[in-house]
Design brief:
Blueprint: H1 28-42, H2 46-59, H3 64-76, H4 80-93, H5 98-110, H6 114-127, H7 133-144, H8 148-161, H9 166-178, H10 182-195, H11 200-212, H12 216-226, H13 235-247, H14 251-261, H15 269-281, H16 285-298, H17 303-315, H18 319-332, H19 337-349, H20 353-366, H21 371-383, H22 387-400, H23 405-417, H24 421-434, H25 439-451, H26 455-468, H27 473-485
Helix pairs in contact: 1-2, 2-3, 3-4, 4-5, 5-6, 6-7, 7-8, 7-9, 8-9, 9-10, 10-11, 11-12, 11-13, 12-13, 13-14, 14-15, 15-16, 16-17, 17-18, 18-19, 19-20, 20-21, 21-22, 21-23, 22-23, 23-24, 23-25, 24-25, 25-26, 26-27
Length: 486
């Protein structure tokens, strides 16, 4: 139903500094202040820690311990640009401090310098291949860059080092999906969701990707997780879950799913369209109409919603409402024969023959082989007394089907207007021979025979027609009239 890429979670991992000692000469009272500042941060007293470290930095600007910790606090309080110069000063003398190098990479990335960040993470990977953080962080950068092969390599390495981290598997799933490896993407999204079942994003990604991988049945449990909490339900997952239920024939569960989460649907026009389809299938036509109208409030040009709403109104006999809906649809989808046919049928029912005729002409321009439409058009032109136009279309039908009973009847009516009764009689007799159940031809043949002075034959023709359709009012009225005259 929907094609949506998985959602990555770009949460970088920082390494809390193990540096708890100052460098160089520092008075005992300042060394104690440093240790207290570190302890304050670890106790959650971030602002107090920052103030103390800033004071220590003013007094000891070359102390790497102070530089590292103040940079770390700045970074954790969303001030990466303030952290970078402190980290760089410390890095100049402590390139062997892998925690520092990793966090400098994080600060570069947070400031928008992805290439510098990657370079630092590569240093950390080389310095200690067992560390998880540089592989995960590099993977997230390559994911942002849409370099999916490199993202896969780094995130796979991260997963080996931390096999219980759902974020790694989720982002690895996104990388595989971007690399068009849907089975592998689905497998990793599922791992992420299984590790953290209450995470809507992970469950959504697993469910949607399994559907795209043609694994509808396997997708259902993950989509159910993603929609379990109505208030937080992912609407894309709800749409897809409903579609998965419907494909298995469980329309009741599909409808129940969408009804349950509709309060969270907001402006998702696809959701409201799907709800309309399911409500209509459950014979809730007022509910279906409301859903289609909601979809069109959100997306006035949605062709499917316009079509379904128009058909629903047409079936309910509300032709004056269905006609403008079909008119809009035909205007938006000008190359659709079906849209023109629906407009023509609805307009004719609404007695708007001008619109119906225009729609049928448009349909025939798109597909001249539509004989039934051509007959509708010819009959409408006949009613409008456009005899030349009607004759053209009746003859066009007869060129392909010389025994078409309705076209023969129409041609006969034009002959009657021209007072060519012999030609009209011949056409009507051929019409009846072609389709003995087409009773309108009996009525018209009787009128032709009467005008030719053959009332008895006309009466016999009407009686023959009544054997086919005993309840036909036109046959009976003409028979009564002719018998009274006789």
């Amino acid at each position: 139903m929907l094609k949506r890429l998985g959602l990555a979670v770009f949460a970088l991992t920082a390494i809390a500094s193990a540096q708890t000692k100052t460098e160089g000469q520092m008075p005992p009272e300042d060394r104690a202040a440093f240790e207290k500042a570190v302890a304050s941060y670890k106790d959650g007293q971030v602002s107090e820690s920052q103030a103390s470290l800033e004071e220590l930095y003013r007094k000891h600007p070359l102390d790497t311990g102070v530089q590292i910790w103040l940079g770390f606090v700045y970074q954790r309080t969303n001030r990466p640009k303030d952290a970078i110069p402190l980290y760089e000063k410390a890095y100049a003398v402590r390139k062997d401090n892998l925690e520092l190098v990793n966090n400098l990479g994080n600060a570069y990335l947070a400031s928008g310098d992805e290439d510098k960040a990657l370079a630092k993470y590569a240093e950390v990977q080389k310095g200690d291949p067992k560390l998880f953080e540089p592989f995960y962080n590099s993977g997230t950068i390559y994911l942002r860059k849409k370099n999916y092969p490199e993202a896969i390599n780094n995130l796979k390495a991260a997963a080996k080092r931390k096999s219980d981290d759902p974020y790694v598997y989720n982002n690895l799933g996104v990388a595989y999906e971007g690399n068009k490896q849907l089975p592998e993407a689905a497998e990793n999204f599922a791992k992420a969701s299984d590790l953290q079942p209450d995470n809507v994003v992970f469950s959504r990604n697993a469910g949607l990707t399994l559907v795209r991988a043609k694994k509808q049945k396997e997708a259902i449990p993950y989509l159910e997780r993603a929609t379990a909490d109505s208030a937080k339900a992912d609407i894309a997952a709800a749409n897809t879950l409903a579609n998965a239920y419907a494909r298995t024939g469980d329309n009741a569960s599909a409808l129940k799913t969408l009804e349950r989460v509709k309060g969270n649907a907001g402006k998702d026009s696809s959701f409201w369209f799907n709800l309309g389809v399911l409500r209509a299938g459950n014979s809730d036509l007022p509910g279906a109409e409301a859903a289609y109208r909601r979809a069109l409030e959100i997306n006035p040009g949605d062709l499917d919603s316009l079509n379904n709403l128009g058909i629903l109104l047409f079936k309910k006999g509300r032709y004056s409402e269905s006609t403008p809906i079909f008119s809009k649809l035909a205007g938006l989808n000008q190359n659709s024969v079906g849209a023109q046919l629906n407009l023509g049928a609805s307009a004719a029912k609404a007695k708007d023959m001008k619109t119906a005729i225009a729609a049928w002409k448009a349909a025939l321009r798109l597909d001249p082989s539509q004989s039934a439409v051509r007959l509708d058009l010819a009959n409408a032109l006949l009613e409008e007394e456009d005899y030349a136009g009607a004759q053209f279309h009746f003859r066009t039908v007869l060129e392909k089907d010389k025994n078409n009973s309705e076209a023969l009847n129409g041609a006969a009516l034009i002959y009657m207007q021209e007072q060519k009764y012999a030609a009209a009689e011949a056409a009507l007799r051929t019409s009846i021979a072609s389709d003995p159940k087409f009773v309108l031809a009996y009525v018209n043949l009787a009128i032709v025979l009467e005008r030719r002075g053959q009332r008895e034959k006309a009466i016999q023709t009407l009686q023959q027609g009544l054997k086919v359709d005993p309840e036909n009012e036109a046959l009976r009225q003409n028979l009564d009239r002719m018998q009274r005259v006789s």
